[in-house]
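G., the chain you wanted modeled:
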Amino acid sequence: MYKTLLRPLLFLFDPESVHHFTFKLIRFANTVGFGSVFKSTYQVADKALERQLFGLKFPNPVGLAAGFDKDAKLYKELSNLGFGFIEIGTVTPKPQPGNEKPRLFRLKEDSAIINRMGFNNGGVEEAVERLKENAAVGNKNRVLIGGNIGKNKITPNEDAVNDYIICFDALFDYVDYFVVNVSSPNTPNLRALQEKKPLTDLLQTLQNKNNLKQKRKPILLKIAPDLTDEQLLDIIDIVNVTKIDGVIATNTTISREGLQSENKEEMGGLSGRPLTKRSTEVIRFLAEKSNKAFPIIGVGGIHSPKDALEKLDAGADLVQLYTGFIYEGPQLIKDINNAILNRA
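Predicted structure as tokens:
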């Protein structure tokens, strides 16, 4: 129904406007009682799908990637569609509007999206207020939440660590794991923080704070697909030195190779099918060169169960959807979980 009826209708309109409309639609449907219908339709409840990773139990290995629910507005309702975990953000210390519109583009012929959103969000404190209910003691419907953190656009790179610390401290009691985002192409000079020394310093600072907590939280690093093999080897070294808990591979790409759609020259990060192969290559490289020394969450171009299985076979422990969810709908979540079960 989604691909034959709803998606063609939604794709007639501006993608950012449709995103906000879809949020309202999903929220309304849950408000009037469709949450249980969504659960029974799309959730696959099976012990064989559970994953134990960095001290957390994931009900299934298919999550929603950061960028979809930036401000933690819809995590409860989205979890009803079958996701095993939801990653909110990227959040920054202060609210910021992001880049000028238009900043989100569909590439229909390529089953892809280009975005140059620029970390538009209401600020970390706003997200915290929405997450308090989820973190309440005794909440039986608690959603496993990842907190993706970044820096404000106006913060110079030499002061970036302070922005990450602010977000880390504010979110600590309300998320299950953290993701350090230094790989978005849409914040000026952000990717420079992926260089070995600044990245090591940033992660070590967060890890030092983490280790002082009574119970530490997992910290993961989200990396770009555009890193060279030498840079990926540096990432492995950095993970080993700082002892962070894992890597998310990968963020969006600045490559435009092989695109057909009219929007292919738009500036921003490309996600979707064109990223499928490269993100899997990065996962495999990290897993093989590190001897699977740390967990990997695979994301990028997952539009079918086959895509997800290939990432798991390459070395990913969990997978996340974003553009594939937009193009294929919630049935994709169910199909991936069933495909995993059928191989078990």
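The chain has a mean pLDDT of 97.

Shout if anything looks off.
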